[in-house]
Target: Cytochrome bc1 complex cytochrome c subunit
Amino acid sequence: MNALAARRRHPAAIALLILLGLVVTGVAYSTFAPKQADAATASASQVEEGKKLFLSNCSTCHGMQAQGSKAGPSLAGVGAASVDFQMGTGRMPLAAPGVQAPRVDEVRFSEEEIAAVAAYIASLAPGPAVPDAEYSSGEGGDVAKGAELFRVNCAMCHNFAGSGGALTRGKYAPALRDIEGKHIYEAMVTGPQSMPVFSDTNISPESKNDIVAYLHSVDKQENVGGMNLGNLGPVSEGLFVWVFGLGLMVAFAVWLGKKAA
Model:
């Protein structure tokens, strides 16, 4: 009986089973894995134009080959998304050294120039790409789900309403009010400053779009209760009550005392 079983079990059977398992696993992963939210790839002419812009505007701090220096970090592997975020929000080029690069409303470069520099940096090493509008506009996103994800992953630094907050060593989590959805998405996948990186395995592109939808809904939200005091929470509200509310009560008590006298 044992000899018959030994004849039926081919020596390559285990290897074939392992190979079959690997094929099934690969097919399942490619089918069900989160889809990348990358935009279209760049052309060679765009990369060359981006290189010229980089050498004339960015190489002083980041090096001629984007290898980094004492004045700026290496840009190899940061991806087009990081360049689009930093330049698209006016943080780069940095006006002066500081603890943190602030957002600037006046962007120095056009969208075409930013896209060219992003294409050049992306050609140096793989990195997060600029997201497609399908995943970064907030359109069709689940606001309720986005609110839950934001409270779990972001609110401890950015405040429940995206009003920002203080961090250590003079740094801060910036306010997220009236921010373009693309830049919110890019911040999640690149992790600028002290922010952690939320890859697609942590938060899927669809869930990132839900977060964008929530933040955009906060921008449009009406304050039916009156002044929101910046949506900074109980600290600002308590301060307002103590300074103005208690002050009015003291003034009213003084006025009553003088009237009685």
Q: What stands out?
A: Residues 44-124 form a domain with the Cytochrome Bc1 Complex; Chain D, domain 2 fold (CATH 1.10.760.10). Residues 234-260 form the longest helix (27 residues).
